[in-house]
């Protein structure tokens, strides 16, 4: 997955907003809360994808080669995929979708209704 594919996928999720910040990182939010980030902190190719995850998923993923606790966000159970060969695109999309769900579930019921996340 590249940044363009990442942005397209995140855009397809319900009630998302996008901003470019922190030196050009592609930051995706739901209800004003971040659920996924694509950044490139080194010269040359090599996007890095970061996302919120459950406690169990955090533990499992950070034991895999090429996936690390996300800088500045690890205490909130975020991981960063540093090596794109560490995870298939289909799995990455699944984790990003789960991150969207986790963050959206923490919004107030009113926010969820206003954003069309619940009926």
From TrEMBL:
GO terms for molecular function: DNA binding. It comes from the Bacteria. Keywords: DNA-binding. Pfam families: YjbR. InterPro entries: YjbR, YjbR-like_sf, YjbR/MT2646/Rv2570-like. This is MmcQ/YjbR family DNA-binding protein. The lineage of its organism: Bacteria, Pseudomonadati, Pseudomonadota, Alphaproteobacteria, Hyphomicrobiales.
